[in-house]
Specification:
- This protein is an alpha/beta fold.
- It has a domain at 5-161 and 190-218 and 276-292: NAD(P)-binding Rossmann-like Domain (Rossmann fold), CATH 3.40.50.
- Helix content is 39%, strand content 17%.
- It has twelve helices and 14 strands.
- The protein starts with a strand and ends with a helix.
């Protein structure tokens, strides 16, 4: 059987690297588009054996350049997304709304068999968030141009390469007091990156299309519970205090002056809304791919980087010490 060709946008991130490994192991050929070949290629190349992966350098806004890639493509996967806006055109509108629309048009023009787009959970409810509105606009544009598209809405995605648990543990490691926005009551259903890539692979291998799926982990955790779990795994104690929203807005506005802000005003607005399955769409459980990995078990594998003693604080060394 001829190997199918997968075209991936956003392949150098945590989800992309996991997905490339998964696809290549199952005899799919992968072409990854990156903006900076010299900076990203070393990471991408190590995810698959030679012959299974090609890397193409192009800006995602360069439609003429990326158009040629669709001629020999069976499956297009869009994993591109940003958490906050930057200069040089990296806006929510450009990345989450306009770019997916371009991909959908190209998929239709070249009769691509599957187009899988990664969106986000809870975007219908977060009406005052620019991030959520841009994601929702992107979905609308995709379905208008390519109705056969499959849209995935994951909750918070975590792994050793994420920007969620790792950033939180870095902050908890350095701050004696940690703020709880909205009293830490916002609920999430964190999904491990490998569970999400299993869902994407299942959709590809079973040729599923024309649906929106909510991708969730096996647990429902509040923001406060997540922080408490991270502190326990790190072996740290911190004072957790509810933070008034007007002060949070001021601090977020100041953070936005930084190159990589830990919190923005838009992210603060997003935190008002639970990030759990809405029951309006099917979940990964209903299509036969339940999430298997639990938050504590997975974060435990890499939290030692923030523990006193580093790798020597792991059970491996503690067990040897007690022998």
């Amino acid at each position: 059987m001829k190997a199918k060709n997968c075209l991936i946008f956003g392949g150098s991130g945590q989800i992309g690297t996991h997905l490339i490994r998964k696809l290549a192991k199952n005899n799919y050929r992968v072409t990854v588009v990156t903006r900076n070949l010299h900076q990203k290629s070393y990471k991408i190349k190590t995810q698959a054996n030679a012959g299974f992966i090609d890397i193409f350098e192009a800006k995602i806004t360069d439609e003429l350049k990326i158009r040629s890639l669709f001629e020999n493509t069976d499956i297009c996967i869009n994993l591109v997304g940003i958490l906050y806006e930057k200069k040089k055109g990296n806006t929510f509108k450009n990345i989450h709304s306009i770019f997916p629309s371009i991909l959908a048009k190209l998929c239709k023009e070249y009769n691509i068999k599957q187009f899988i787009h990664l969106s986000a959970l809870g975007i219908n409810e977060a009406v005052d968030s620019n991030y959520a509105k841009s994601k929702l606009d992107g979905e609308t544009n995709i379905l208008k141009n390519f109705p056969l598209a499959t849209i995935l809405r994951p909750s918070i995605v975590y792994s050793v390469d994420d920007n969620f648990t790792t950033n939180l543990m870095s902050l908890l490691n350095n701050l004696p007091v940690f703020p709880l926005y909205y009293f830490g009551k916002t609920k999430f259903m964190p999904i491990h990156c490998s569970d999400l890539t299993d869902i994407i692979y299942h959709i590809i291998s079973k040729n599923i299309h024309s649906s929106i799926f909510e991708c969730v982990g096996p647990e429902k955790l509040s923001f406060k519970e997540i922080i408490e779990k991270l502190l326990k795994l790190m072996g740290k104690k911190r004072v957790l205090i509810p933070f008034p929203i007007f002060l949070a807005n001021i601090s977020a506005k100041l953070f936005e002056l930084l190159p990589n802000p830990p919190l923005t005003q838009d992210q603060l607005r997003l935190l008002k809304y639970d990030n759990v399955n809405t029951k309006k769409y099917k979940t990964n459980n209903e299509i036969g791919v339940p999430s298997k990995k639990y938050f504590d078990d997975e974060v435990k594998k890499y939290c030692y980087m923030w523990r006193t003693g580093g790798q020597y604080s792991t059970e491996k060394y503690q067990t040897n010490k007690n022998v």
